[in-house]
Structures are given as C-alpha cells and as structure tokens.
Amino acid sequence: MDDRELIARVRAGDPAAERALYDAHVDRVYRLSYRMAGDDDLARDFTQETFIRAFEKLETFRGEAAFSTWLHSIATSVVLNGLRKVKRFRRREADLDEADGVAGGAPRAEPDLKRRLAQAIDGLPEGYRTVFLLHDVEGYTHEEIGAALDIETGTSKAQLSRARAKLRDALADFAGDWIR
Amino acid sequence: MTDDERLDGELGRLARDYHRPPETPRDEMWARIQAERGRRREAAPVVPLRPWMRWSVAAAAVLVLGIAIGRLTAGRPGTTPAAATTALRGADVAYRVAAAPYLTRTEALLTSFRAQSRAGRVDADFAAQAQDLLVTTRLMLNSPAARDPRLASLLQDLEVMLVQIAQLPADGDTRGDVELINNGLEQRSVILRLRAASPMPGVNARGAL
Fold first, then answer.
1. In whole angstroms, what is the distance from residue A162 CA to residue B51 CA?
2. pLDDT of A92-120, one tens digit each?
3. Which of A27, B167, B195, B200 is 20 to 30 A (C-alpha) from B31?
C-alpha cells in the first residue's frame, strides 16, 4: 500500500494505517534527528513531535509534494527549533559553570581525525551543517533538502560547497594522509 | 578527480560515524506518540475563542500579572506608586500574558514535588514538567521581567531548581538529589517568594496597583 492510500485510510480513522505510515517513515526521521542532535533522548523527542504534528496537520496535506518531503519539512523545523532552544540553555549552563570556576578540567589529548572532524562539523554554521549532514551523510538530494528547508536547490548546493570547504580547511593538516 | 574532490569523498565517508544513529526505537516512540496525542486531545480547549474572547483572556492575564508585579514592587523600600506604575507600563505585553500561567504552574509543580518527596515518592512526570517550564523560565529571564531585580533573582533560583528536578534520574536512588533540591527550596525560600509573585484568586488589586 503506498503513502496516498495510507493517508486516505488515516483520514478515514484507521489506526492501523497510522501505524503503517509511521513505520514507513520513522527510520529516516529518527536518523535525521539523531544525526542533527547527537543525543538519543533529543532524537526521540524530535521524532515523536514530528509525527504528532504530522498527524495533527494531515488534513492540510494536499499531496502536491511527496508525503516524505512534507514530513521532512516538519522534521527539520522541529529539530532546528529544538536544537536552538537546547543550545541557548546549554550556553547558559556553560556560562554559569565558567562563572563558578568549575568548567574546564584536564587538557584534552591530541585529537584524532574523527574527533577533529566531529568538532569541525559541530562548528559549522547551522545551515551549512544541516545541508552537509543531510546530503553527504544521509544521502538526501538537493531537491529534497530544498523542499525540507524551504530554500532553493542552488542555495543547498552553495551551502554544501561552503561546508565542505570549511571542513577541508579545518582538517588541512590531515590532508596529506588522504590524498597520497 | 581533484584533490578537493578526493578529500570531500573521504570527509563524507568519515562523517558517517558522526552521530551514528542506533537502531530506531520504533515501538517505544510509537507508544509515547499515542500517549502524548491522547493527552493533547484531552487538554485541548473545547470552546473555540472568538476574537472578543481572546481580548478578554489577554486582558485578564495582563491584570493578574500586573497584580503580581505590583505585589513585588510594592514591598520594595523606597518604591513609589508612580515608579511601580512606570515599571508596569514598560513591561512587555507578551511577557505579561505568558507569565501568569507560568508562575502558577511552577508554584504547583514545586509544591507538589516537595509534598510528594516528603512522603517518600517522586513521580517521573516531575522531570518532564520541569523541563517544559525551563524553556519558559529562560524566555522570562530574557524578557523585560528580568529588569526587576527581585523577579530576576526569583527566576534564577527557579531555573536552578527546575534544572535539578529535570535531571533527576528516572530510576535508582534519588534520595540524595531530592534532599538537595528540598534544602535549596527551603534555604532560598523559593516557594514563599513564588507565592508572593503568583497571582492569587480573590486578591484585592487596588492596593497593589
């Protein structure tokens, strides 16, 4: 049964169709949430909120785009807004820790490549990071990213290009090992 | 293939380990989605608000919060009624609408938490509610409300209390943590100060404003 049939049955009040629609899409939404949040609790919260909103708004889905596109636009909105709130809260906590003199700790060991890459991805501007993770890690097309983030396909391509350039710069000292 | 293209390919390959997702907890999330949808359906207002009703609700919220701000400023030595009125006028309307239910909910949460924990039990729901209220606390701290030093001090204490409650482990021995929270509530007179700031039914607004 395809998405269109499932949606018609959900609208008719079929709970089994709701579960089938959820099962068909939950993996990709959860993966997106986890990639962006890096935290299981947050990823679960974001995934749950995405589906709650999707079911609430299903009557407004007109079918002009694919259901997965519509669902992922909800998911990216939920994740990005949620992460902004968490970031503000964590910044406040970090400020408090610094003020109390309890932050810091032992100096870190020499970072290896993966840790440096993770830090570099964390340090990307939000738009670059989102496009990089969606395209290069999760395999979304620029068209899907454009629809999910409500940006032009060209903007998605430009942001990916800049994201990659920033990552190359951040990891330049490892480059010699890769291109031999 | 250029060096940059080769590097990009390698970066993409390595980045697959960045925040690598575990297996999707389908059934757990589905159960929570169903529970939350049920809760929201029950909590949804049954009477749709017409425009004039929205204004009435907003006006009522502004009024009760005005009372709260008035009560805070009225007790401050050297504060004149004119100064209190000026401070009230300067407050942001959106903040005032949001603050009344926030103060009431926070008072309810902390009071219930203290009562239940003294009886030797703490519901897991407290952590979720505290987490929810933390977002509003931060918004309040960033709002014109925080210009009032007494309210700002109260909000900062509330934030610390709510963080501690939100971070209580779901299982295991929490007695030490709970005791720490209750000591903080007592030592900082948090509930007392919260009640002084919260609007109460039947309060006489004339004296405060």
1. 47
2. 666 665 655 444 443 343 458 888 999 99
3. B167
